[in-house]
TrEMBL record:
Name the UniProt record assigns to this protein: cyclic-guanylate-specific phosphodiesterase
Domain EAL: 464-718
Sorted UniProt keywords: c-di-GMP, Kinase, Phosphoprotein, Transferase
GO molecular function: cyclic-guanylate-specific phosphodiesterase activity; kinase activity
Lineage summary: Bacteria, Pseudomonadati, Pseudomonadota, Gammaproteobacteria, Pseudomonadales
Enzyme class label: hydrolase
Domain PAS: 150-202
Pfam families, A to Z: EAL (PF00563), GGDEF (PF00990), PAS_4 (PF08448), Response_reg (PF00072)
EC number: 3.1.4.52
Biological process annotations from GO: cellular response to nitric oxide; phosphorelay signal transduction system
Length: 724
């Protein structure tokens, strides 16, 4: 209710002089304005120091003051007021609710205590009441004045306490309870008085509550303190937590005839207690505990809780001689979604992935968010590798279906590394590291799959860190070299193209081949920089040869999945090609089937954009990945490269030859060019020629060579590559 609707004070208090003290101007002006509207003579003081100055200069009937003030606090103002104007009453208007502060204020002479934010009607009623009391105090003897103050103190402490104050008889029945119980638990004091205190105890805490009062050693110096749950009246409110402190009542200080004015049952009190509501504290503790052990975005256990559960599961598995499995899951295309659609969409994707994954877990399994887009899964009890394999396949299938994020349909895959106890490790750290290593082997082989850890995957940590450091230095020192392997016309033996292959001239280890360092480059996210260096060098070299008289020479370049999946892949690639003035129609990029099928919609769009610039598209290692013949005629694909494993199997009666037959026949039907890799013998070359395979490359014509050797070979153009 607003001040305009409050009743006017009695006539004898209208002209009362009131000092209002607060160090917050807005609250001070509000309080002063409210009192002036009621006809009071109000003087406002900003802060305790100004209040003391006004007390020295003017008489007042009443002071309303705050306790917490920066310069001079309310306690000092009350002390100064008592010294200079002992007949002036004081009322505290403060946000401080601590029992000690309230008690101290009343002991210092405060006539009442109003909590902020105050109710205007309540405040005006209190002011009127206090002014009336002051009028009575002035008319009575000094001892009566002290009695009134004592009663005010008792009234506030008991009936206006922020806690439930109660008294019990020797059997545990309520013989007094203050009105705070109504706002906290919904009961009125009248309906509780006479009932046993177990009436409000939660069923789970009845035994503890009963024992607390019956236990030995309880005294005034050794009160009983315990935390219990109290039931609220009806079912509309939740059970709340309380901290209860109970004292025995000394019969000498509490005679049986004492009564508490309508709030008591009339029975003899034997216990006095205070119940403080600590529900907010308990909920805060529970939330802090949840934060410590859970990821707040996905609500999954975090790394710390996962490790605790894994440690326990290892102990149980060792005791029962059982197996357990740890899976390390990494989302394959999360970074693309995050970079393209923003972090908010990335967070929604993580939540959607979590929801989908948890639907396929068994009771007792623990899925945790390990960090970023990485998850770990604990299967605490498995009979064999097949159990873990079955779960891994379910999870992979679950994440292959598209996710709808607002207007966007996105695709993600998952790479899963699996470590089985005890063969992949006997400790928590070993199992997690083994699963992590296995996961990176999945990443290196095209993603969207699973692998079990084996000892052959183990890489010495120190050696790997050293090689990573050297690779970063190699990029700075330009130690990476580009070699070229000719792609040759199978009929004329003339060079039609050059495939750019990276080599690393290590200062200590000599010439390193791609298999020695590209998996590490993938793992450490350096593969993009390596691929960019190869592309830049190859565009310079081959561009120079094209301009020197070989206009039809084609450059074939392998691109990493990380590059192809990047949102600005096409834009970045064409900028580099144009920067070197390299003719786009002479460039052929090689990508694997798995890269295309991992996100067919997005990759298809990028390939069409490249084809519009004139760039040729080749499918590398065709036949070894996840194939779908449907995309071959839907996408702008120009060349199929037959994997060397099939070419090596070209011997009488072997299945590899049948696969080569099928691929070549399919390419002819789709009017695509064919490049057979790994040609090493006359037998293989003759067989490919008989099938009508257009182009070949391999050791039959020599290994990849540095640009100096290629330059000499092209200098004798149109010499046949057989002389190379």
């Amino acid at each position: 209710m607003t001040p305009e609707h409050t009743e006017q004070p009695r006539s004898q208090a209208v002209s009362a002089r009131i000092l209002v003290v607060d160090d917050e101007p807005r609250l001070l002006n509000t309080l002063a304005s409210l009192l002036r509207q009621q006809g009071y003579d109000v003087t406002a003081a900003t802060g305790g120091r100004r209040a003391c100055e006004l007390i020295d200069q003017h008489p007042f009937d009443l002071a309303l003051l705050d306790l917490r003030m920066a310069d001079v606090d309310g306690f000092d103002v009350m002390a100064h007021l008592a010294k200079c104007q002992p007949d002036c009453g004081a009322v505290v208007v403060s946000g401080e609710s601590a029992f000690t502060a309230v008690s101290r204020a009343l002991r210092r002479g405060a006539l009442d205590y109003i909590r902020k934010p105050f109710d205007p009607e309540e405040l005006l009623a209190t002011v009127e009441s206090v002014l009336s009391q002051q009028s009575l105090v002035r008319a009575h003897e000094h001892i009566q004045m002290r009695l009134e103050k004592s009663e005010a103190l008792h009234r506030y402490i008991v009936n206006s306490s922020p806690d439930i104050v109660f008294m019990l008889d020797e059997d545990g029945h309520f013989c007094f309870v203050n009105h705070k119980v109504e706002s906290l638990l919904g009961y009125t004091p009248a309906e509780l008085c006479g009932k046993h205190f177990r009436h409000v105890l939660d069923d789970r805490d009845v035994a503890r509550g009963m024992y607390a009062l019956q236990g030995p050693g309880i005294s005034a110096d050794n009160p009983r303190t315990l935390e219990v749950r109290l039931k609220t009246r009806g079912s509309r409110r939740a059970t709340r937590h309380f901290e209860i402190t109970a004292f025995p009542v000394d019969p000498q200080t509490w005679p049986p005839s004492s009564n508490l004015a309508g709030e008591a049952s009339g029975k003899t009190a034997r216990y006095y207690g205070i119940a403080r509501d600590v529900t907010d504290r308990k909920e805060a503790e529970a939330f802090i505990n949840f934060q410590a052990y859970h990821d707040l975005l996905t609500r999954l256990p975090n790394r710390a809780l996962f490790k605790d559960r894994l440690e326990l599961a290892i102990t149980q598995a060792r005791r029962n001689q059982q197996k357990l499995a740890v899976m390390f899951l990494d989302l394959d295309r999360f970074k693309i979604v995050n970079d393209t659609l923003g972090h908010a969409m990335g967070d929604r994707l993580l939540q959607a992935v979590t929801h989908r994954l948890t639907q396929f877990l068994r009771k007792g399994d623990t899925l945790s968010r390990f960090g970023g887009d990485e998850f770990t899964l604990l299967l605490p009890s498995i009979h064999s590798h097949d159990d873990a394999k079955h779960i891994a396949k379910k999870l992979i299938r679950a994440l292959r279906a598209p996710f709808q994020l607002g207007e966007h349909e996105v695709f993600v895959g998952v790479s899963i590394g699996i470590a089985v106890f005890p063969e992949a490790g006997s400790t928590m750290d070993q199992l997690i590291q083994s699963a992590d290593i296995a996961m990176y082997h999945v990443k290196a082989r095209g993603k969207d799959g699973y692998r079990f850890y084996s000892e052959s995957m183990s890489v010495d940590t120190a050696s790997r860190l050293s090689l990573e450091r050297d690779l970063r230095l190699a990029l700075e020192r330009d130690e990476l070299k580009v070699y070229y392997q000719p792609q040759v016309c199978s009929q004329s033996n003339r060079i039609v193209g050059l495939e750019a292959l990276v080599r690393w001239q290590h200062p200590e280890r000599g010439l390193l081949y791609p298999g020695d360092f590209l998996p590490l480059a993938e793992e450490t996210r350096l593969i993009s920089q390596v691929s960019e260096r190869v592309l830049d060098r190859a565009c310079k070299d081959v561009g120079r040869w094209i301009r020197s008289g070989h206009p039809d020479l084609r450059l074939a370049v392998n691109l990493s999945p990380v590059q192809v999946e990047h949102p600005r892949f096409v834009e970045t690639l064409m900028q580099r090609v144009q920067a070197h003035q390299f003719p786009p129609e002479n460039l052929e990029i090689e990508i694997t089937e798995n890269v295309i099928m991992s996100d067919l919609e997005q990759i298809s769009q990028k390939l069409r954009e490249l084809a519009a610039f004139g760039v040729r598209i080749a499918i590398d290692d065709f036949g070894t990945g996840y194939s779908s013949l449907n995309y071959l005629h839907r996408l702008p694909i120009h060349t199929l490269k037959v994997d060397q494993s099939f070419v090596k199997a070209i011997r009488s009666g072997e299945d590899g030859a049948c696969i080569v037959n099928a691929i070549v026949a399919m390419a002819h039907g789709l009017k695509l060019e064919i490049v057979a890799e790994g040609v090493e013998t006359d037998e293989q070359l003759d067989y490919l020629r008989s099938l009508g395979c257009h182009q070949v490359q391999g050791f039959f014509y020599g290994p990849a060579r540095p640009p100096e050797d290629i330059n000499r070979l092209l200098g004798s153009w149109p010499a046949r590559v057989a002389s190379f």
